Amino acid sequence: MPYQTLLAEKREGIVWVTVNRPEKRNALNQRVMEELDSCFREIASDAEARVAILTGAGDKAFVAGADIGELAVQSPISGRETSIRGQRTLDLIENLGKPVIAAVNGYALGGGCELAMACTLRIASENAMFGQPEVKLGIIPGYAGTQRLRRLVGEGKALELILTGEAINAQEAFRIGLVNQAVPANELKPAAEALARKILSNAPLAIKFALEAVRHGADLSHSDGEFLEAALFGACCATEDMKEGTRAFLEKREAKFAGK
Ligand code: COA
Hints:
The two termini are 28 Å apart. The chain folds into two domains: 6-200, 2-enoyl-CoA Hydratase, Chain A, domain 1 (Alpha-Beta Complex), CATH 3.90.226.10; 204-250, Orthogonal Bundle (Lyase 2-enoyl-coa Hydratase, Chain  A, domain 2), CATH 1.10.12. Helix content is 48%, strand content 16%. The strands form two sheets. The protein has a six-stranded mixed sheet with strand order 1-2-3-5-7-10, with helices on both faces. A four-stranded mixed sheet has the order 4-6-8-9. The chain has helices spanning 30-45, 68-71, 76-94, 111-118, 145-153, 155-164, 170-175, 188-200, 204-217, 222-236, 240-250, and strands at residues 6-11, 14-19, 51-56, 61-63, 100-104, 107-109, 121-125, 129-131, 168-169, 181-183. Residues 24-25, 27, 60-61, 64-69, 107, 109-111, 133-134, 137 line the site of coenzyme A.
């Protein structure tokens, strides 16, 4: 589907999704949010799309947050609805059933940081900056930043970032566990692609079940999480990929997975 504010391109199982409003630092207006929702729904239902990489157009910003022009005129009711709709779209990305890698190529502020956190993995270029500056505008994070940031970096660091509104650079984001890798700017796309290819080389159903175990397990008690893990482990044992993966190891050859 053609989009006004996104570029979406599929190559060999990897879908590159680029937020394309560089003149507005890729800020998330309603149009971008609606298109992100449609685009990720399409990726979810496309069997050929196995990993997505999300990035921003230009060399300045991944996403510089929600569109402040649109924010400025929100009423209590529309503000709440905007927050809920955004949370749903980011939940869709987080629970896509396929890995989504954020390739953070510049500012990831406010909704941009929240969008990156909804992705499965994050790689930052060395010029990336992360922050939740909402309190500087008289609001708080509204796309689940208060929840995901705490989960990723712990309550102390999350509150420091949210209460000061100050941004941190890629190295600091790496140090506190907000991103998986920090790389020179010109290595960002190759690093994201290499990570996607590593995942693609593994058993597709095992990837799906591992994502489900970690993601759904996060909302469960320890024992319910273990129960879910055991059920999914059992499901893996019913796959052709499990037979192939274990046989290939024993026969000292590369496994050829069929995703069955
Ligand atoms: N919403 C709407 N427009 C935004 C935006 C946002 N979140 N972020 C940037 N823009 C717009 C600017 O208004 C400007 O538009 P103009 O050219 O029509 O005046 C354009 O994008 C370029 O922004 P500019 O500030 O000149 O770019 P910069 O490279 O000097 O600085 C940022 C980049 C990201 C540091 C700066 O734009 C910024 O602080 N943006 C807001 C970040 C924020 O508070 N996000 C959280 C929102 S909840």
